[in-house]
Structures are given as C-alpha cells and as structure tokens.
Amino acid sequence: MREILRVQKLGKNFGGYHGETIDVHAVLREVETSAHHHGWTVEVFHEQAELKWFALHREPEVRSRESEVRIYISAGIHGDEPAGPLAALKLIGQDRWPEHAEIFLLPCLNPTGFALNRRENAEGRDLNRDYRQRRADEIRAHIAWLERQPRFDLYLCLHEDWESHGFYLYEQNPDNRPALAGKIITAAQSVCPVDLSEAIEGRPAQGGIIRPILNPAERPDWPEALYLISHKARQGYTLEAPSDFPLALRVNALVAAVNAALHP
Ligand SMILES: [Zn+2]
Questions:
Q1: Which residue has the higher pLDDT, 198 or 14?
Q2: How many angstroms is it from 75 CA to the middle of ligand 1?
Q3: pLDDT classification of 1: cutoffs 50, 70, 90
Q4: pTM of the complete model
C-alpha cells in the first residue's frame, strides 16, 4: 500500500498531454502478431495512410446458452491516449478471458491520431464526437462493422484523461443490472490513485464514478459510448486512466479495470 501512495502526478501536462508516445505502426504489428498467436480472428475493417483498423474476435471456449456473454472492448479513439492500445496489447498477451465470453476487441480506433500524438484524427476531427453525424471515414467504417455484429452484454471503452487526479469511469446502466463500477474502481485503485473529486469533467462524481444522465436525442455530437448504449448494449463503462502518471501505471490500471469487469 505504501508503494501505491508514493505514486505522484508527474506535473507534465499543461494544456494537453505531454507524456510518453507510442510508435503506432509497431504497436499495431505487435497486436496483429499476438492476436494470431492467441487464436483470434483478425479482421481489417478500414485502411488509411498505411495504417490498419483491426477488429479482433474470439469465440467462447465453452458454449452454453445460459451463461454466454458478449463483451465489446475498444481503445485508442483519442490519439494522445497511448495507454488504451497498450492495455489492449497486454490483455491479448495475458490471454485471460472468461471461458463463456465471446470477445470483440478493437485495439486502436484512431491510428492516424497516434501517428501525430494528438486527440483528433489526421483531419483534425474528434472521432469520439462523430457517432451521430458520421463525417469521418473511419467512423463510418466502424459503424458499418458494428452493424454487422450481434448485440453486446457489456461494452468497455478505454481512455485516458491528462487533467484528472486519478482513475475514474463513466457508468451506463439504464436497466439497473448488477453494477460493475465499484469492482472496477477497486481493481484500478490497487494499481493507481482514483480521482475522488466531487465533480469530474463538469459532472457530479462519487468515488471515481460518474453516472451521467444522458438523453442521446438531445446531443448532436455522440461519443462512441452513446452510440453503443443506443444501439448495441444496455450496460457499459468508459474507463479513464490518469495520463499525468507514468505510462506503465496507466496501462496496468486499465488492464486491472478490464479484468475486474470480465471476472467480477
Ligand atoms: Zn479519450
């Protein structure tokens, strides 16, 4: 515990993310190699500027109608949030998936943004605000892919926030299913500090959990999570690692959070 409490913010990020960057071409090559090695089906649903948009899929190891769940995980929609794609790569390498789960993993939704270390894509568009208007080619390709998939029981979107004081998450659970937020926060807290602010990103928060009340019809600029809750799933979490901490810590926090949601 003392080790954890000693972790301090780096104080690097003023006006934006100024931390570690990744070689997105190298990370995507590793993702592809590791996914093949661990038996995933690898689909490329979009290509642009010599970069590939991967959708990885694995069937449950044990088929059973009662306990089967479909879980969707995405990362890397903001090109200045490297912990997401690295967490996806680590999860593939760990190969610890629930035996009754069918997994859909999109490890990097904005490769052109990562090539530039910026939030937006190469054309300067915030892709995580484009799921209603669908102006970006890669978002149209992503939605076309989503429309070919079955509904999911759970979605997890991996993000980072350079302004936050610790890990936090957004919970969408309109049907009041058994909530996973507490378990996810506890798992993340074993790795990195949690943001205990009473307001995060202008929304009320409690113990690192934001439960936004959203009316999708009133919002012109849908993030991915709003599309998912409207069309594909009835429960999901947007996970935010604090990017003013060392990269390895943020990757481990996201991996711990995903594992807590997968193995509650
Ligand atoms: Zn983000």
A1: 198
A2: 9
A3: very low
A4: 0.95
Distance 83 CA to ligand 1 centre (A): 10
Angle CA 180–91–122, to nearest 5: 95
Tens of pLDDT along 195-246?
999 999 999 999 999 999 878 888 889 999 999 999 999 999 999 999 999 9
Q: What's the 59 CA to ligand 1 centre distance in angstroms?
A: 28
CA of 73 to the centre of ligand 1 (A): 14
| β-bridge partners, 54 | 44
Rounded distance from Cα 160 to ligand 1 centre (Å): 5
